[in-house]
Amino acid sequence: MPAGARGGRPERAGAAPVVGRTIPRVSGHLYRKQHVVTSVVAVIVDDAERVALTRRAVAPFHGLWVMPGGKIDLGEPILSALHREVREEIGIDVVVGALVDVFEHLTPGPDNDHFVILYYRCRPSRHDLAPNPEEVAEARWVPRAELSRFDMPEGTRYVLGKLFPELHDPELRNLET
Fold this sequence. Notes:
Keywords: Hydrolase. InterPro entries: Nudix_hydrolase (IPR020476), NUDIX_hydrolase-like_dom_sf (IPR015797), NUDIX_hydrolase_CS (IPR020084), NUDIX_hydrolase_dom (IPR000086). This protein is mainly beta and 177 residues long. It has one domain: Nucleoside Triphosphate Pyrophosphohydrolase, CATH 3.90.79. The chain is built from 2 helices and 13 strands.
């Protein structure tokens, strides 16, 4: 293999080698993948203004409370991914409403990705949640008045603050330059 190459591919200028692979350096930061990871999340709100939350059993956001969702597979329509992820994580179907917002999650590091997350408001088809233990440690319906008590990543708190004004946190920012 020629000097400066890994796996037959030349290293990119500005990239840092990490355990046999190259991590791109973007604005001086390192990321695990060389592309943006696009994800979709269901903000499932029932008629009693309860929100379906899951406590993550896996990375990213392990141990934090989030709404069901995940990565969009290449070639998969966005709403198909949304339905698939909800079924996989909590075993219900949803009626998809409007796009609430797009949130950009940037946490540089060799074990992290650059996420662009599409949040859609949804209504549940039923209330009996069946969490998938491979991804979800716990799933529950959380009343609006109790949402602030849960440990959530910024994107989850930001989007809930858009739906419920009492949860708005002026310190949380989205899509900044």
